[in-house]
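User: Can you help me understand a structure? I only have the sequence.
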Amino acid sequence: MNESPQPVLPSTGEIFRVSLRLGTVGFGGGLTVLSAIRSLCVERRGWLSEREFVRVATVAQMLPGGAAANALAYLGLRFKGNRGALAGYAGFVLPGFLATFVLAVIYSSLGVAPSAGLLLDGFNAAVVGIIGSITIQMVRTGIGRLWQMGLAGGSLLLSLPGGASAGEVALLGVAVGLIADLSQKQARLHRYRLRQRTAPVALPHGGDLLPEEDPAPRSADREPPGSGQIPLAAVAFAGGAGLHLTGLDAQLFRIFVTFFRTGLGAYGGGFAIVPHLQGVLVGQHWLTARQFADSVAIGKLTPGPVLLMGTFAGYLLGGPLPALAATVGIFLPPFLLVIALGAWLDRVRQSRTVRAALRGLTPAVVGLMAAAAVTMGRTLDGPVAIAIAIAVGLTLQRFRMDPVFLIAAGGIARLAAGLLGG
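Assistant: Let's start by predicting it. Here is the structure, written out as tokens:
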């Protein structure tokens, strides 16, 4: 009997090269890159089945951080363990990191010329419109219950006047979702039992637990998640000793911890952390409001995750080492959570409890996104910038367009208006 040939699965180096390529052209946000990942891994190379890709994409969006970076890390984890996860994650982030770093050097060294300032004003205005459009879309697709609307409004208030971090708001959303959604299901079950006068055999809910293992593993070459530990203790110790001798360890540690806490609460992508991060960086006078707004715009304009705004902000705080500390700090929590929770979430993603938690997390993220729109909107200077933000938001509501194109268009429009005396 002839057996069908096993698919050729990727090596760690191939995972890195594919992720590097996707990171280089990864403009337009996480969902755009997820589509490119599907095309490459399912249709062209056959690394995943359609069902497996859906599982990878779902898990990626259940964790903080960029969905595309999480998906590539989890894909690497499934194939080559921790080494594969690191290859997928680092490969995707590296091109955007280098681009953002170069822009930060230019920005810091040369300053902002009047024409460049107008261009950045347009970028910032377009980003406000993009955040507003994403928030409206999330309201339409993710909020359909009264308690979710209240939770979204409460998250907005907690994030702005309350100063709560994105992680705290996300945890509140999960808790409210578990209480509200599960209690509603129990109430419906109770009413159903009263009508039937006998307990039903089963009540349909969000879905059953997935099986512990796939019925037919695609290849024995896959390494189990968690294998392939990378011995970095000696390198970390040597680096820490060097930093201590130079007297930079205290400053770098503060920067690292600040961005680590931010990355830990980055549910819904980079925009969700804007209010909290601005409160920390601008509130402690590490950056001006203008510098922070430019960091967000550059983070969206460059390829890769919006979280790369941490690289730009870190460089403005003190140069290359703070930029590296901020980058590692903001990206490390999502990466560690992919390794620690990825396989477990894959199994339980359709359970009643997990779906209830997600129903609470979604409106919490909507509130964070609305807070980000308000925070960035406060930096808009003049009616032209406001008009650009409104135009970009309305355009995205009506047409499917690349956000990076709209950011560039916003910058050009603001520059033209400024040169013409607007």
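Now, to help you interpret it: Residues 198-221, 225-230 have pLDDT under 50 and may be disordered. The longest helix spans residues 67-110. Let me know which part you'd like to focus on.
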